[in-house]
Amino acid sequence: MASSVLRVDARSDQTFRIPLIDLGKYRHADSLSEKRKTADEIVNGFKEVGFIYLEGHGIPPGKVDNVFRKSAEFFRLSPSIKDKLAWEDPRANRGYVKIGRERVTQSKDAVEIAELRNKTPDIKETMEIGRDWDKTWRNYWPQESDAPGFKQTMLDFFQTCHELHSVVMRAIALGLDLDEMFFEDKINEQYHNLRLLSYPSIETSLLKKDGQTRAGAHSDYGTLTLLFQDNVGGLEVENPHTGQFQPARPIPGTIVVNTGDLLARWSNDILRSTLHRVVAPSTESANADRMTPLRQSIAFFCNPNGGARISCLPNCHWPGYEAKYGPITTEEYIVGRLASTIVD
């Protein structure tokens, strides 16, 4: 995909598209120059849109399907079981978040966020899972008898997603003219978050109310997000050149990947952390009773190591384009953002 074509397409709402990139060409390349071709496609996509679709990523469809099955089984458990696993602390970012408890937003004003949450909370429930060997924070797991195979399925998938994240970060390093392994010792502690999401079926008219969404417009916090969608749809991405939201329709077998805030800060906003939201999907997805169907997705939020110092990369600033942000650690940034989105 020529970057010149991408630039033209991205800047018009009529021709806006999220590029589809075959990571298999990078994974199976015989030379660094071959890898660089795919790396440039990935970096160009993140420069212009902030989002890409990845095919050829190497995660078997059956593995993804099983994660969706186990996630659905979890959310069908009784509230009394799920509530025992409730999310408690932004530093941990683990556990179950019931419908109405979260309101993602770009705002940093506590009063404004509280008002948004009271008026139009996000219509979703989630389960947050971190690295299971953490000595400070533990995961909250349902009993095996309540959710057979759930824990092992999610632990296996967590590792699989971390490994894919590492591959994509190597490609990004090449595309930014860094050593391919530049990020390796900055992401190896697996300070990530696997988020299972369930958006309940709801009257479409309720989702059309002013300010109401399944998930409000927001950017993600870390390096990358790997998003696995079902076929319902509803994800929208802001065209960063026009400010208009555009559908990111599901493409079977692909993963939606987007840049997070910390990677944008690292790159001095050369790579875009783009706003996105989840709304009512197109009308053909709603049934005759005007119900928006249940939607599932699986998001793997990839983060640098908790203590990693995020400051402008040496080749991402120059005279006339100075560093925009002061240094910050991963933990400082993410905990601050999480603390503002979930109410106790």
From TrEMBL:
Assigned keywords, A-Z: Iron, Metal-binding, Oxidoreductase
Lipid biosynthesis among keywords: no
Ranges for domain Fe2OG dioxygenase: 190-304
Keyword hit for Transport: no
Source species, domain of life: Eukaryota
An annotated Gene Ontology molecular function: oxidoreductase activity
Family statement drawn from the similarity comment of this UniProt entry: Belongs to the iron/ascorbate-dependent oxidoreductase family.
Protein name: Clavaminate synthase-like protein
Organism (species): Russula ochroleuca
Lineage of producing organism: Eukaryota, Fungi, Dikarya, Basidiomycota, Agaricomycotina
